[in-house]
Amino acid sequence: MSPSPEQAAFPEAFAAALREPRSAIPARLAARPGVDPAVRFAIYRNNMAAGLGRVLADRFPVLRRLLGADFFAALTDAFIRQHPPAGPVLLEYGALFPNFVERFPPSQHLAYLADVARLEWLRHCALLAADAAPIDRAALAAQPPDVMARLRFTLHPSLAILRSPFPIVSIWRANIDPANPAVVPAGLPGENALLVRPGLVAEIHAVPASRADFVERLQAGVALGDATNLVGADLTAALAFLLSAGILTGFFPVSDDAARRSDPA
C-alpha cells in the first residue's frame, strides 16, 4: 500500500522541526498519556543539536578556542540548522563548515578564521585517509641519474596542501595546546600548509610556495625532471623533506615522451 501524502511528508516535516527550535512539532506525533509530545520532542531536538555541536567542537578545536565557547556554540547552532548531516556517517560531517564560517556575518571581519577551519578539516581528512608504507629509500637511491629524472612518484593518500594569505600554520600551532598557548606575532605573512599522516599523527608543515608547487606537480604525475625547475637549487632539500615527512610512497620510471606529455606546462 502506498503511503498517504501526509505520511510521505512526515519524514521531511520531522527533520525540519528538528533543525528549527522555534517550529511546531510535526503533526501526528504522539506520546504516552500524561506526557506532552512537545516536551519529548524538545528533548530529542536538544540532544541532536548538542551531539552535532560536540562533533564540530572536536573537529575544529582551534577555531573554537579562537572564537570562545559561546560564540562557537552560536556559530555551530546556525550551521546545524542550515546544514544537517546528509547521511548517517558523522565522520563526514563538517565539510561545509569552513565556507559557512567565511559567510557568517558576525565573524566576517576576521577573514583568517575560514582558513583555520579549512586547515582543521584537512587535518581531520588526513586522519581518515588510507595508510601507506614509505618509499623504499635504498631502491630510490640506486636509480641512475638519467632514470631519476624520468621518475614519477606516488604520494601519501593523506597529503593535502592549503595556501592562505594568513599565517594559518602559526595560528594553529599557537592554539592547539590549551595548556601552552602562544602569541602569534602581528604582521606575519601568509603560509602554505602541507598536511600528511605518515603514521598515527597528522602532521602540519609550513612550506615555501615553490615547494608546494613542486609537491603538487609530483602529485599530478609530472616526472621529477620536469618538476625540478620549481625548486631549482633547493631540489636536494626538497627531496630530503619529502622523504623525511613520509610523503613519497613509491616510484616508477616513464619514457621521455611520456614524461614530456605529463608536464602541463
TrEMBL record:
Entry's Gene Ontology molecular function annotations: DNA binding
One Pfam family in the UniProt entry: DUF2063
InterPro entries: DUF2063 (IPR018640), DUF2063_N_sf (IPR044922)
Gene3D superfamilies, A to Z: DUF2063
Protein's UniProt keywords contain DNA-binding: yes
Domain Putative DNA-binding: 12-101
Keyword annotations: DNA-binding
The protein's name in its UniProt record: Putative DNA-binding protein
